[in-house]
From TrEMBL:
Gene: NARS1_2
Protein name (Swiss-Prot/TrEMBL): Asparagine--tRNA ligase, cytoplasmic
Keyword rRNA processing among UniProt keywords: no
Highest taxon in the source lineage: Eukaryota
Domain Asparagine--tRNA ligase N-terminal: from-to ranges: 1-26
Compartments where located: Cytoplasm
Keywords: Aminoacyl-tRNA synthetase, Cytoplasm, Ligase, Protein biosynthesis
Stored Gene3D superfamilies: Bira Bifunctional Protein, Domain 2, Nucleic acid-binding proteins
Gene Ontology terms for molecular function: ligase activity
Signal peptide range in chain numbering: none
Keyword Aminoacyl-tRNA synthetase included in the entry's annotation: yes
Domain OB: 44-123
UniProt cross-references to PANTHER family, sorted A to Z: ASPARAGINE--TRNA LIGASE, CYTOPLASMIC (PTHR22594:SF16), ASPARTYL/LYSYL-TRNA SYNTHETASE (PTHR22594)
Length: 183
């Protein structure tokens, strides 16, 4: 009961923290994750789903974002992770992140070799707490997995299988078209 009361108090205090897009910064260009390498050093806007979420204390949060074209590690600090949306954020939520693409420091790793240092973000759609991991895990029945197929294909393994299947199908299609057949 004390933990719930403390959490409610923290959430009420977090509602007072307002984050705004700084108009003095250059306009952010909307970019897909697989095209970010060419945008290093520039301010960009990336839409996607929260794939992984890791909080470190009150002032630092790491988000691995997924948009269907790849994965991007993002760093949020100070007010960005102390606001109400930062406290209630969960995996599979849809967000828009604004910031500068910077190469990863030596000795560190991130998908694509770069990360997004955020200066502003927006919550587009909040997912239920726990995300897909609450619904789907290794112990889930096949019926549960099939009923939630839209969540399964967001995972890394199933999406890779579907990409391989697509490539194999395209190879067969190209072969038969080159031989003069029609589908």
């Amino acid at each position: 009961a004390e933990d719930n009361e403390r959490r409610e108090k923290n959430l009420e205090e977090a509602k007072k923290i307002v984050i705004e897009n700084d108009p003095s910064l250059p306009e952010a260009e909307a970019v897909k994750i697989h095209k970010l390498e060419a945008k290093r050093g520039q301010r960009v806007k990336v839409f996607g789903w929260v794939h992984r979420l890791r909080r470190q204390g009150k002032n630092l949060m790491f988000i691995v974002l997924r948009d269907g074209t790849g994965f991007l590690q993002s760093v949020l600090s100070d007010k960005l992770c102390q606001c109400y949306n930062g406290l209630v954020l969960s995996t599979e939520s849809t967000v828009a992140l604004y910031g500068t693409i910077t190469p990863v420091p030596d000795g560190k790793q991130a998908p694509g070799g770069h990360e997004l240092h955020c200066d502003f973000w927006e919550l587009v759609g909040l997912a239920p707490a726990g995300g897909a991991d609450n619904l789907l895990n290794e112990e889930s029945d096949v019926d549960v997995q099939l009923n939630n197929r839209h969540m399964m294909i967001r995972g890394e393994i199933v999406s890779k299988i579907l990409r391989v299947r697509s490539t194999v199908t395209q190879c067969f299609r190209d072969h038969f078209f080159s031989c003069g057949y029609y589908e």
